Amino acid sequence: MNDTTHPSAPDNSRAVADFSTQLLAATEPAPEHLRLLHQRLENSADAAGILDIAYTTIDSPVGPLLLAATEKGLLRVAFEVEDHDTVLEKLQSKVSPRILRAPRRLDIAAREIDDYFARRRTAFDLPLDYSLSRGFRGIVQRHLPEIAYGSTQSYKEVAELVGNPHAVRAVGTACATNPLPIVVPCHRVLRTDGTLGGYVGGLEAKTALLTLESVA
Amino acid sequence: MEMKPPFETIVTEHAAMVLRVCRAVLGPHTDADDAWSETFLAALRAYPELPASANVEAWLVTIAHRKAIDVTRARQRHAIPTDTVPERPSTIGNPGSADHDLWNTVKALPTKQRQAVAYHYLGGLPYQEIAEILGGTTDAARRAAADGIKNLRTTLRHPVKEAKE
């Protein structure tokens, strides 16, 4: 209003602001166009070898699951209770920020998980990336797939089987921090007295998985 | 320490802005799609090195500016008479006609004005950042954007219509 250098400035700047709002509205890209551009980016990033982490979300009887994979293999399976955004933020700081929603790399994992829940599959056969499993936890997590479908072991038994019989509590921690639940079956590890112990996806999910396997 | 979001967040938040900028500079065709793709591919490649405190919009518009120049040069190289490659129709999306009038009007602006309008009014960048991208002073960038908007408003006498893509 007090701009003496541009006497018509108030009116003019108002009109320019209106015009630029119209300009933005008129140039809003169609969502479908952006979706196709995104898909093109997924493909070219993968081809260029710079898609460090691809992820997708799938529906399952135990709620939506986040699946994330590197070029090496499946890196992370996460339940909704873990909060998918938080999981992705951790992946960006621990592994790489080059992360895109790019479902194609997860096609096989998604299909195998579907088959598992449909009782068409009792073991997973896909490359896993164990980079998030360090040290003793990693040793325990690599042992877990040896526990057969429909059977269980106690935390104590697992500790003995990995050659560290006194590390019962550490086995519990390893199961609780399993980055690949369902696929790496930490749900098959129970307390010695047969009670559930804990589970990264919540006890309801653990019960659901054990029930699914027991009626196979 | 400030956390950087996963790159997917960058794409989700800025995809539309970068496409507007590419279309304003290159027209609403496959050239703009190519520049968009090259921009985000280059951004993804460089993302691990981007400081968490960086201005992401300015970073993306700077890359888009360079990629638009690359695409323009590639088009000029391909425009030699012996080249029989026909102009490709847009493979994705078909800009409507009202939309087309607008883009054509933008396209008719002098280069500096077009860029300044794109980067300020569509990219949301302050004039200081635009001056760094285009060279020259902040005032010159402000004048170029003001002149560009004035020219657009004069040409588009009727109000801007909604795009019907």
Question: How would you summarize what this structure contains?
Answer:
The complex is a heterodimer of chains A (216) and B (165). Chain A is of the alpha/beta class.
Describe the structure.
- The complex is a heterodimer of chains A (216) and B (165).
- By secondary structure, chain A is of the alpha/beta class.
- Chain A is built from eight helices and six strands; from the N terminus they run H-H-E-E-E-H-E-H-H-E-H-H-E-H.
- In chain A, strands 3-2-1-4 form a four-stranded mixed β-sheet, covered by helices on one side. In chain A, strands 5-6 form a two-stranded parallel ribbon.
- Chain B is mainly α and 165 residues long.
- Helix content of chain B is 66%, strand content 0%.
- Chain B contains seven helices and no strands.
- The termini of chain B are far apart.
- Classes of the chains: A alpha/beta (216), B mainly alpha (165).
Gyration radius of chain A, to the nearest Å? Answer: 25 Å
Shape of chain A: elongated
Give the CATH level 1 class of the largest domain in chain A: Alpha Beta
Main β-sheet description of chain A:
4 strands, mixed
CATH superfamily of the largest domain in chain A: Methylated DNA-protein cysteine methyltransferase domain
Strand order of the largest sheet of chain A: 3-2-1-4
Tally the structural domains of chain A. Answer: 2
Strand content of chain B: under 5%
Write down the secondary-structure element order of chain A. HHEEEHEHHEHHEH
Domain module tally of chain B: 1
Query: Looking at the structure, what is the overall shape of chain B?
Result: globular
Q: Which second-level CATH architecture of chain B applies? A: Up-down Bundle
Pairing-aware structural class of the strands and helices of chain B?
A: mainly alpha
The SS-based structural class of chain A is: alpha/beta
